[in-house]
């Protein structure tokens, strides 16, 4: 029950109401029982139509009665001639129209109208479209009606550009109409598809893509139309900068296609006789679709994700048969084939080397501008200018602030870092209910920037300290990192994704609020864990560390767990490899 | 190609043209819709009253309103029993009577109807299986036939019809996999195709609608993220984008709405909150403010929760109010599973493991 205000009433009023209800109940039950018994007897007559009509007029959600009506109508189709049937169905449509007027949000009525429209011998789609127009003029957000309209449009072949004009009209009369913007997001890519990208020479053609939705790659809009669309949306948010509909739509317009599915990195370690493969996104790499060839010989290996919690993972590992590559004087050539995607990656392990890898030299373009922009920089630059002008007028407008942050990231993530951080600070203040969202988003951007800097410097050290990090992401991109310093942030956990850091040797996370180490799971090279001043409180919280065979040094000072009785002996039993323990 | 750019003054004049008076913000669009929580609104959880309200609800069988809602009785029973179980009061309900009722509602085709005399439907088939799972007695019905019924409703494109009359909706995709998951029979349908269909309903904002092309809606997002959880495909969700849309459902009152520009509502609060929990982003809303809103929707006299403060209560909003408080961490209530909206201990008992995003 929705929107029914509770009204206080006197005892006498209540008694009168009770009597009235009793009377209504009797009539209702009698009609219902009459319907049920007629149906049981297989009666399909006018009286049954009348009885169901009477009940459905006040209770259109009584689905079984619509079913009964359909049975009756189908029966009438077999006994009446075509003109009579047409007439019967038209009467049904009028009845439905009165039902929809009374209750425009009943699933049952709308579905019955679908059903009738589809069976009508001579459908009148123009009438159906005008019904939608009228209904949407009363409530332009009624999603039942929007969906019905989409069906009518499809059945009657209304051209896509006519529907786009329809949304032009609605948006022109009221910008604040999320439903219209939504509809545009489905129409534009059909009308103005982005020209297909030229096939890149390094990759063979991929498999047919999954079904299209505005979220997927193939449903982007061509650049020329995008520019017109920016103009329209800007009209909307300049008019009412607090209207979220336009901003949501704008963020989508600025978005860009997802990264291509590929193998982004292959790593091989002689010590562990292990291969790790990173993909551009989470996959299931069963041995059937992922093939490892060593020196020309296909290998029988078991691929496993880095943590039992992940069925889909961007990083997969496998152990080679003992002795295959352990001889330091030997040289090996490795190829990983992703047969499902017709792609592969090679990696050579030279004599005298203990490890080797092969990966894309990542640039910011390829890695992280995933949220924004294939557009030319100049266009984005002027978009940023417009938003900055709006911000001058509305300095505390959160939608504008966030959009500016996104534009800055698309243009020059490192160059705008300082301004971005300042904007995030403002966002947390003006929209405090969502401060955790802004903190996480800011953390994500900081991590991206740090990865970029690391790539430019070609090092395997990752460090973000004292930056109010609240969450960790992109850990699949840190597969090769050996040293991590995340000290003095606001992290509460090392999530299972942390297990992707297969090369990690030293981890510094002093001065956070970490209470969970789930991700320190089977890290083969991890030697040092500095966890000073965190919130590890039980021995069980430290359990994951027992799976890291090379762990030698552990700093737990300033954690509640150190207050436990017998902590030293308990730890000696749990983590026998640790020789340097600080409590 | 560059579009025309405006100087700051053109922008100002343009804004004047659209919006005559900037100082007095009279929006061309709709006003921000929200409710105001009165200072005397309930602010503590009235568990005993809610239990009494639900216990008494089923004894109103001769009531007009009660009779009018017969078409959804099976779901009504599920709402009542689940909220009682979450409050540790399940034994107060008449177990045998309910199980007998469900048996009587299973049809020859295997599907289950809302009530006796009504037609079977996926919505009520799921509710019945949920109830029987609470009572640990799914064997009371013909499980194989239920599975056949669900399987028979899957369409060529992977979608599910709600019943033989062919209405297609992602809600029914959820009903189908939730029913099968509870029965441990997920392998009986074409899961890949079912997943493809649900993914084709994903929108520009990361949310989901009823059918391909339909607008995002919190109830639908709940169904689709729940569906993707049960089918092990949650990684296909753009969690950051969807999470942003979901946390933007929170209004100043603390309540959540189901779509932009709509009023807050206790049931939408559940659907948004559960979806956020599923995609590992529940901390993106202000939990304390939401708790205040949900508590304010209680009726101090009768017990039960309404959609908004001051409205009439019903079992539907009572379940989603209590379940929402459970997700927010209220320790007086049993932990609830965000996908199936059932107590976690029930799912543990039947061995159904539900993996959320972390
Ligand atoms: Zn509601």
Automatic annotation (TrEMBL), chain A:
Q: Where is the composition biased (Pro residues)?
A: 195-213
Region called Disordered, residue ranges: 192-218
Q: Gene3D superfamilies recorded for this chain?
A: Protein prenylyltransferase (1.25.40.120), Rab geranylgeranyltransferase alpha-subunit, insert domain (2.60.40.1130), Ribonuclease Inhibitor (3.80.10.10)
Q: State its Enzyme Commission number(s).
A: 2.5.1.60
> What is catalyzed by this enzyme?
geranylgeranyl diphosphate + L-cysteinyl-[protein] = S-geranylgeranyl-L-cysteinyl-[protein] + diphosphate
- Key words, A-Z: Leucine-rich repeat, Phosphoprotein, Prenyltransferase, Repeat, Transferase
Q: What is this protein called?
A: Geranylgeranyl transferase type-2 subunit alpha
Coiled-coil features, chain-numbered ranges: none
Q: Does the keyword Transferase apply?
A: yes
Q: What family is this?
A: Belongs to the protein prenyltransferase subunit alpha family.
Domain (Rab geranylgeranyltransferase alpha subunit insert-domain): give its ranges.
263-362
> In Gene Ontology terms, what is a biological process of this protein?
prenylation
Which GO terms of the molecular function aspect are on file? Rab geranylgeranyltransferase activity; zinc ion binding
Top-level taxon: Eukaryota
One Pfam family this chain carries?
LRR_9
The record's function comment reads: Catalyzes the transfer of a geranylgeranyl moiety from geranylgeranyl diphosphate to both cysteines of Rab proteins with the C-terminal sequence -XXCC, -XCXC and -CCXX, such as RAB1A, RAB3A, RAB5A and RAB7A.
Q: Which gene encodes it?
A: RABGGTA
Q: Does the keyword Transmembrane helix apply?
A: no
Which PROSITE patterns does the record associate with it? Answer: LRR (PS51450), PFTA (PS51147)
An example GO CC term for this entry is: Rab-protein geranylgeranyltransferase complex
Automatic annotation (TrEMBL), chain B:
Q: What's the Enzyme Commission number for this chain? A: 2.5.1.60
Q: Give the co-factor note.
A: Binds 1 zinc ion per subunit.
The protein depicted here goes by the name Geranylgeranyl transferase type-2 subunit beta
Keywords, sorted A to Z: Metal-binding, Phosphoprotein, Prenyltransferase, Repeat, Transferase, Zinc
Q: What class of enzyme is it?
A: transferase
Superkingdom assignment: Eukaryota
Q: Which family does it belong to?
A: Belongs to the protein prenyltransferase subunit beta family.
Q: Which GO terms describe its molecular function?
A: metal ion binding; Rab geranylgeranyltransferase activity
Q: What does this protein do?
A: Catalyzes the transfer of a geranylgeranyl moiety from geranylgeranyl diphosphate to both cysteines of proteins with the C-terminal sequence -XXCC, -XCXC and -CCXX. Catalyzes the transfer of a geranylgeranyl moiety from geranylgeranyl diphosphate to both cysteines of Rab proteins with the C-terminal sequence -XXCC, -XCXC and -CCXX, such as RAB1A, RAB3A, RAB5A and RAB7A.
What is the annotated quaternary arrangement, including any partners?
Heterotrimer composed of RABGGTA, RABGGTB and CHM; within this trimer, RABGGTA and RABGGTB form the catalytic component B, while CHM (component A) mediates peptide substrate binding. The Rab GGTase dimer (RGGT) interacts with CHM (component A) prior to Rab protein binding; the association is stabilized by geranylgeranyl pyrophosphate (GGpp). The CHM:RGGT:Rab complex is destabilized by GGpp. Interaction of RABGGTB with prenylated PTP4A2 precludes its association with RABGGTA and inhibits enzyme activity. Interacts with CHODL.
User: What CDD domains does the database record attribute to this sequence?
Assistant: GGTase-II
Q: Name one Pfam family in it.
A: Prenyltrans
Kindly list the GO CC terms recorded for this protein: Rab-protein geranylgeranyltransferase complex
Catalytic activity reads: geranylgeranyl diphosphate + L-cysteinyl-[protein] = S-geranylgeranyl-L-cysteinyl-[protein] + diphosphate
Residue stretches making up the Prenyltransferase alpha-alpha toroid domain: 45-342
Query: Which cofactor names does the annotation list?
Result: Zn(2+)
Its transmembrane ranges are: none
